[in-house]
Amino acid sequence: MRILLTGGSGKAGAHVAAHLAAEGHKVTNLDLVPLGAEGVEDLRADITQGGQVWGALRMYAGFDELEPGTGVPSYDAVVHLAAVPRIGLTPDGECYRVNTVGTYNILEAATGLGIPKIVIASSETVYGVCFADGERLPEYLPLDEDHPTVPEDSYAMSKVANEAAARSFQRRSGADIYALRINNVVEPGDYARDFPAYLADPSLRRRNFFAYIDARDLGGFVSRCLAVDGLGYQVFNVANEDHSVKENTQELIERFYPEVPVRREMGPAESFYDTTRARRLLDWRPRHSWRGALGRMT
Predict the structure, then answer these.
(1) Can you tell me the mean pLDDT for 256-276?
(2) CA atoms within 13 Å, Cβ hemisphere of 45
(3) Which of the residues 78, 134, 211, 250 has the least number of beta carbons within 10 Å of its own beta carbon?
(4) What is the pLDDT of residue 295?
(5) How far is the C-alpha of 280 from the C-alpha of 275, rounded, in Å?
(6) Mind listing the pLDDT tens digit for each residue in 204-246?
(7) Domain assignment of residue 259, yes or no
(8) Confidence band, pLDDT 50/70/90 cuts, at residue 132
(9) Which domain holds residue 97?
């Protein structure tokens, strides 16, 4: 596939770019900062500038595309990860502006040019727990995509707005548009550095629902989204299947969620961040776990 990937120079984006390139896709990374990775073309552009987005989608993606003499080929898909990645990096209004205007521009241009598949990054923060002022608890467990999304912070608000825009553009265009509510992204090197502290103090993971997504598995998730057509507008939770702490499910419920309804029986290490929909519709399963990375440190 010929894919435009935005934000491919970021923590998550670099792994997604590498995964897609390794699968043989032609990947163009649209970002303010080049990635410089083998097999990935870099294109410097600002997603908040609509003209730049439209122009990027109508450009040659490398000199090799000049050779056939048949004009600029169309993109098969857009994977949109570019964003201000959390609160606290810019003033709140700027975070909201960049994330919502940038996503609107991507959706408008991609659907306007008839690109049939768009994947956008949403976030675990839409559930209102991660960046809450004080403690917020989920309304029920495990936390699935039907859970209410009522966040308090500018970053999560922008992601809720982007999901609404994506649903509207899908209805108007008929394209497949999938929004990924990505949990805390963990790179391979993060396991040895960060997880011993999580094993010592599980409360450090409360705001992430004790969940995580290995960056390599995120690449596989995006790949499955590109492979599975015909789902229209979909929202998917994206996380690994196990907790990021050593305590089992029941121990975590008793300590952190004693009053929260549990809607079904859960496995002893099963994540509270439910990915049943992804398994059912995308046939996706993660391949990496902190348990394997750290051996038997449980």
Answers:
(1) 97
(2) 27
(3) 134
(4) 74
(5) 9
(6) 999 999 999 999 999 999 999 999 999 999 999 999 999 999 9
(7) no
(8) very high
(9) 2-136+143-188+212-243+274-288
Q: Are 30 and 47 in contact (CB under 8 A)?
A: yes
Distance, in Å, from the CA atom of 49 to the CA atom of 233, rounded to the nearest integer, reads 25
Alpha carbons within 13 A on the beta-carbon side of 40: 28
Q: What CATH number does the domain containing 64 carry?
A: 3.40.50.720
Residues 42-64, mean pLDDT to the nearest whole number: 97
With cut-offs at 50, 70 and 90, classify the pLDDT of residue 298.
very low
Exposure string of 269-293, with b = 16+ CB inside 10 Å and e = fewer, is bbbbbbbebbeeebebebebbbbeb
* Strand partners for 78: 4, 118
Residue 48 lies in a domain: yes
In a domain, 67, yes or no: yes
Residue 171 falls inside a structural domain: yes
Residue 142: asked if its preceding bond is cis (omega within 30°), the reply is yes
Count CB atoms within 10 A of the CB of residue 157.
Answer: 22
CA distances from 26 to 21, 41, 201 (A): 6, 8, 43
Give the integer Cα–Cα distance in Å for 215 and 92: 27
3-state SS assignment for residue 283: coil
CA distance 284 to 288: 13
Q: Where does the pLDDT of residue 261 fall: very low under 50, low under 70, confident under 90, or very high at 90 and above?
A: very high
The pTM assigned to this predicted structure is 0.96
The domain total for the chain is 1
- What CA–CA distance (Å, rounded) separates 208 from 183? 7
Q: Which of 97, 102, 49, 95 is nearest to 78 (CA)?
A: 102
